[in-house]
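Lecture notes, unit on protein representations.

Consider one protein chain, 131 amino acids long.
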Amino acid sequence: MTKTNEELVNERLGKTIARRRKAAGFTQDEVAERLDIGKESLSRLERGIAGASVYRLFELADLFECGVDAFLIEGSRRVTEQVDLIDRFIKGLSTADRQLIVQIVERLARRLREDGRKGRAEEEGPGYWFE
């Protein structure tokens, strides 16, 4: 059974919520308590079974001390948003470290092209936003 775009978005958003929660050092129980929801409701959000409302995203952003846009950008397949995300990751690194990252990305991209992994089927699979 093929997943709908909404299901794919919810799945990716849920993974981002879970990743952000763990990075902030919270357990599911702690987040559920702070949001005044059941642990199962949070679990359903993180697994992508249920979608998060805009209001809920704002609550999560406040709790995890990030912008609401972080939840949307991290799962995007739009090149400009991916560039913005990488920019956030490398901010504060030295020039030498940033150059190293650029070299690694360049080599990886070249390798993936050589391996013939430029097919749209992988790009459009679960875990990517639709355009």
